[in-house]
Amino acid sequence: MPALASSLLHLKPNTARVRVGVRAAVCAAAPVAIGAAAGHTVTGLIASTGSLAALYSSDAAPRREAFTVGSAAAVLVLSLACGTLAAHHPWPAVAVTAVWTALVSYACTALAARPPGMMMFVLVCALGTVLPGNVLLLAAATAATGAAAALLSVLDQAWRTRREQPEPVHNNRAARARTAARLAVAFNPAGSPFVVMALRSAGAVASAGSVSILLGLERPYWAMATAAAVLSRGNQTSTAANRALQRLLGTLAGCLLAALLLLAHPRAWAAALVLAALTFATELFVSRNYALAMVFVTPMALLLVDAAGPAQPVGALLISRAVETFLGCAAALAASYAVTRQWARRHQSHALALVLHTSADILAADRTAGSQRRLGRLAAAVHRLELVSERTRGERAGVSAATAPLQEETRQAMDRATRLLKHRGPTEPDPHTARVLRATAHQLETQLLVRGAA
Q1: What span, in angstroms and rounded, lies between the C-alpha atoms of 279 and 52?
Q2: All residues at 6 or more sequence positions from 307 whose CB lies less than 8 Å from its CB, including other chains
Q3: C-alpha 443 chain-centroid distance
Q4: What is the pLDDT along the chain (454 residues), one digit of tens a residue?
Q5: CB atoms within 10 A of CB 97
Q6: Phi, psi for 83 (deg, rounded to 5)
Q7: What does pTM read for this prediction?
Q8: Quick check: 384 and 192 in contact, CB under 8 A?
Q9: Angstrom distance (rounded) from CA 300 to CA 12
Q10: Whole-number Å distance between alpha carbons of 84 and 179
Q11: How far apart, in whole angstroms, are the C-alpha atoms of residue 3 and residue 408?
Q12: Rounded to a whole number, what is the distance in angstroms from the first to the last CA of the chain?
């Protein structure tokens, strides 16, 4: 309990995000204000979802900033378009949102997207299933807002680079190698943990949405968005349980704030200012304290739905959101338990055997030709083993216990592989060690076959 209370109250240091928050707030308010001036407040409100691209800012060089924020904006437009295609049709909406969750979950985990990860993409897709309007018009308006967010981010970063001495970037070679290794794992999904993470997330979203419909809840979008949000930064049991509680408490507190805002029923310029403030607060806390971030994400989502449609009783709306939050958290927790001991042990054994085989190939080589290619394969194998090992340690107790005997062997294999990757120049052949590594790998594979036959 003390650890849980600490996680709810602790603020991680991240002072650099104030500027990013200001950019996101400006981008959120601008389309609403423009829409209000043109008499199309609803279109402006929906277009403001494109401003969420600014939350993915890497606060890096202008070229990288353009790619990062621009890519996020493009995915947000696709998210909205996917949702609106199934608008007001509950079961197709659940199916579309679940499939979209699987795709963005895979991409975000494979590319190590910064917070908020897949959460905003799934939220926008789910919102699209309940919003009215012309799909092409909404997509075009959202794209324009996303492009403005990317442009503002690039200009701000360029101005900052000219004013300040940029910090030197160290170990570019190692960073590029790690990125290449992660992409190698991403583009070779066989045995990749990204596949399981995507399926878990999609299953949780589908379950949350389906149960909401069966219970007669009018709009299941919030339950689906909640399930995705809980699993957005990892769907191991330990991670999901902590985030589910933070999400539940943060959302309940956010409902109180939403009640005050919805009673005022802000429109036009007032809606623009409120949305800007909520977007700024979300960016300020999303990577520092998840529970606090949810206090501001909740009224932001509810404001978009409320302002874009006819007025609804505030009490009924908030009760519905609280129930859907509970359903989303429950679905996410259930998905976090959806792994067996046998699967986890097999998954880690395969990843470990791959590192052993690849290390043996390098140690057995008697020439330098193709050495870079072999090192690239080893880097990808090491990264896969890191991901799998990290995940299995975070699973429920029974799964962690099943893979515990492999942890020491995993550590030794990782240390040996790391030395090979750091070694400069041709590696001295070591046939004896290569034979030992291959024998160990074959033993692991044989044990898997025996267990599978049993």
Answers
A1: 8
A2: 41, 42, 45, 265, 266, 267, 271
A3: 36
A4: 444 445 555 555 555 568 778 888 888 899 988 888 888 878 888 889 998 898 888 777 888 888 999 999 999 999 999 998 888 889 999 999 999 999 999 998 888 887 788 988 999 999 898 876 677 888 899 999 999 999 998 898 888 777 665 444 444 566 666 777 777 777 776 667 788 889 989 999 999 999 999 999 877 888 999 999 888 876 677 778 888 888 889 888 998 898 888 888 777 788 888 889 998 988 888 777 878 888 998 888 888 776 655 566 778 878 888 899 999 999 999 998 888 888 888 888 989 999 999 999 888 875 555 577 888 888 888 888 888 888 787 788 888 888 888 888 999 999 999 888 887 556 677 888 999 999 999 998 888 776 654 4
A5: 31
A6: -65, -45
A7: 0.84
A8: yes
A9: 23
A10: 34
A11: 28
A12: 42
CA distance 56 to 65: 9
| H or E element at residue 113 | none
Q: What is the CA radius of gyration of the chain?
A: 24
Q: Number of C-alpha atoms within 13 angstroms, CB side, residue 358? A: 29
Q: Which long-range contacts (CB under 8 A, 24 or more apart) does 5-10 make?
A: 7/242, 7/246, 7/291, 8/246, 8/249, 8/289, 8/291, 9/289, 10/289
How many other C-beta atoms are found inside a 10 Å radius of the C-beta of residue 405?
A: 10
> Furthest-apart CA pair in the chain: how many Å?
78
In whole angstroms, give the CA distance from residue 352 to residue 438.
Answer: 11
Give Cα 220 to chain centroid, integer Å. Answer: 21
337-358 as b/e: b if 16+ CB within 10 A: eebebeebbbbbbbbbbbbbbb
Torsion, CA 120, CA 123, CA 128, CA 129, rounded to 10: 160
Helices 17-37 and 268-285 cross at an angle (nearest 10°) of 160
Give the number of other Cβ atoms within 10 Å of residue 323's Cβ.
15
The continuous run of DSSP H or E covering 360 comes out as helix 341-364
Return the sign of the alpha-carbon dihedral for residues 236, 119, 77, 310. positive
Contact between 219 and 266 under an 8 Å Cβ cutoff? The reply is: no
Measured at the CA of 354, the angle between CA 352 and CA 357, to 5 degrees, comes to 110
Q: Which of 85, 81, 88 is nearest to 130 (CA)?
A: 88
With CA atoms as reference, report the closest residue to 34 among 272, 270, 265: 272
For residue 13, the tally of other CB atoms under 10 A from its CB is: 6
Q: Find how far residue 171's CA is from the centre of its chain.
A: 26
| DSSP letter, residue 365 | -
Distance of alpha carbon 297 from alpha carbon 299, whole angstroms: 6
**DSSP-assigned letter for residue 133:** S
Helix (H) / strand (E) element for 232: namely none
